[in-house]
Design goal:
alpha/beta; six-stranded mixed β-sheet; Rossmann fold; 5 helices
Length: 137
């Protein structure tokens, strides 16, 4: 894992599908926000996400899948960030491949939600830029 430096912005990709990590990396490779590098950190489960978030308090954005090791994995991560870490600043955007579960779930305290099927390269870059803007406010 990369060491966290102040000049970089850190985005956690929390998803159990390797293809999602690879496509996200491909789309965001070389993408900068206000001339700052974006460093991607990968987690394949909610539990791995919690460990990373506990150890790295400089993460600005989580691109979070809803269903990983369980149907409520995304909820677990959101609750962990907001309630246990008491972090309201970090931006959380739900990216779900199962919109029925996301829509029927009550996600409080997130900053956005989008179905993976609706996500284009330009839309992902816009979501990242808007989230980082809101993080820095």
């Amino acid at each position: 894992m990369a060491s966290l430096e102040q000049s970089e912005l850190f985005v956690l990709i929390a998803d159990d599908e390797l293809d999602v990590h690879l496509v996200t990396k491909m789309i965001l490779q070389g993408h900068k926000y206000k001339e700052r590098n974006i460093e991607l950190i990968n987690a394949m489960s909610a539990e791995e996400s919690k460990i990373i978030l506990s150890e790295n308090r400089n993460i600005a954005l989580i691109l979070l899948d809803v269903v990983m090791e369980s149907d409520h994995s995304g909820h677990d991560v959101v609750n962990f960030v907001r309630e246990e870490l008491k972090n309201d600043k970090i931006q959380i955007v739900i990216r779900s491949g199962q919109p029925g579960i996301s829509e029927s779930s009550n996600f409080g305290n997130i900053n956005g939600m989008i179905a993976k099927t609706e996500l284009s390269a330009s839309k992902l870059r816009d979501i990242v830029d808007n989230s980082l803007y809101n993080f820095e406010k």
